[in-house]
UniProtKB/TrEMBL annotation:
The keyword Amino-acid biosynthesis does not apply. PANTHER family: TRANSCRIPTIONAL REGULATOR, MARR (PTHR42756), TRANSCRIPTIONAL REPRESSOR OF EMRAB OPERON (PTHR42756:SF1). It holds the Pfam family MarR. It comes from Neptunicella marina. This is MarR family transcriptional regulator. GO terms for molecular function: DNA binding; DNA-binding transcription factor activity.
Length: 158
């Protein structure tokens, strides 16, 4: 097998692992990884606004708004317009939302981060540089991507 084949097989395994975990998360909790990350962000920043969520998790405001729409339809969050500034809409978890976070399995990135942080500093730097180089080789450096390990549609404009 050629070296590039070995690399492509490894990349495919990473993509497959993310896909399998995303399916497990969805099956067990009924949530996608981005939905869970948004719920977690709201849980630590009660009353947060869409723009702040988007900035904190590195997704576009439009993507976050779509996620919030789905979460609101499932009664996991509550949006409330400010009484002092009608342009501001705060977002809070409902009891169902709080329970959904408690019941959901840990996101895959938590597992990954724990193992990554256990590596020596030089090895962390080497892995980051290698993955950045791979992204550049795949013409993927300008693709909007949050630090969420999930397979799905890619939003190429932020």
């Amino acid at each position: 097998m050629q070296k590039y084949d070995e690399l492509l097989v490894s990349l495919r395994r990473v993509i497959r692992a993310i896909d399998l975990y995303s399916k497990k998360l969805s099956k067990e909790s009924g949530l996608t990884t981005p939905q869970l990350i948004v719920l977690q962000e709201i849980s630590v920043n009660s009353g947060i606004m869409v723009r702040q969520i988007a900035e904190n998790i590195n997704l576009s405001s439009a993507t976050v708004t779509n996620i919030l729409d789905r979460l609101e339809s499932r009664q996991l969050i509550l949006r409330e317009r400010s009484t002092t500034d009608k342009r501001k809409v705060g977002i809070w978890l409902t009891e169902l939302g709080t329970e959904a976070i408690k019941q959901a399995p840990r996101p895959l990135q938590d597992h990954f981060i724990k193992r990554f942080e256990a590596l020596d500093e030089w090895e962390q730097t080497q892995l980051v540089a290698t993955m950045q180089r791979i992204a550049a080789m795949m013409d993927a450096t300008d693709i909007d991507a949050a630090p969420l390990l999930e397979v799905g549609l890619i939003n190429s404009s932020k």
